[in-house]
Amino acid sequence: MPVKEIQTPFPVIDTDPSFGRVVRNFRTTDYATLAASTAIAPAAVIGLEKFNPVAAGRSLRIPIRLSVLFGAFGGFLLAYQNSSLRFWGWKENAIEVTKDFEELSQLAKEGKPLYGETNMPAHVQAASAQNSRFAQLKFSLLPWFNFANHNNHGVDTSKYSS
Fold first, then answer.
1. Rounded to a whole number, what is the distance in angstroms from the first to the last CA of the chain?
2. How far apart are CA 18 and CA 24, in angstroms?
3. What 8-state DSSP symbol labels residue 9?
4. Which one of 15, 90, 109, 114 is most buried, counting C-beta atoms within 10 A?
5. DSSP symbols for 39-61
6. What is the per-residue pLDDT across 125-158, written as a single tens digit (0 to 9) for each?
7. Which residues contact 101 (CB under 8 A, 6 or more apart)?
């Protein structure tokens, strides 16, 4: 099934970027988002405890540890989503466009597959792409990442070999 063409304000790099590519293209703002949410979650627990004490005489050690864990996980998902939005062309992505062109042009010159080698049949690759494409929009329901190598990325790859 062909990928639906969507008008975006910036160039589309990849409609189904792999987990590694998204994380490698985190910007400083993405790391700041992750750090801020990791710090804000336990601060919120402590602040709420000051206003409405629930754990009278009990330690807040476990709730604070859990809030750090949830804050870090939520911050990572938000940073991952922001990085994915740049791949999709929904946010400013000049840095990623340049980096993508250099990386994939080098792979094309070396004769290697642009999106990694795979042993999956074509129909399984298509199903994998359909399951993970735009999954970052549904993180509130189910965190789903693309760990599979496939050739269904919704972009014209001929630009890398010229």
1. 27
2. 10
3. S
4. 15
5. HHHHHHHHHHHHHS--STTS--H
6. 888 888 888 889 999 899 999 888 887 777 766 7
7. 159, 160
| pLDDT attached to residue 91 | 95
Write out the two tokens for 49: 């405890």
As given in the structure block, the two tokens for residue 78 are 């938000």
d(CA 110, CA 46) in angstroms, rounded, equals 55
Tell me how far apart the alpha carbons of residues 158 and 63 are, in angstroms, rounded to a whole number: 52
SS3 125: helix
**DSSP type of residue 102:** H
- Contact assessment for residue 89 and residue 66, using Cβ atoms and an 8 Å cutoff: no
Fill in the DSSP letter of residue 15.
S
Distance, CA of 157 to CA of 12 (rounded, Å):
12
Q: What pLDDT does 67 receive?
A: 97
Residue for token digits 């062109």? 101
pTM of the model: 0.88
Nearest to 137 by CA among 77, 89, 92: 77
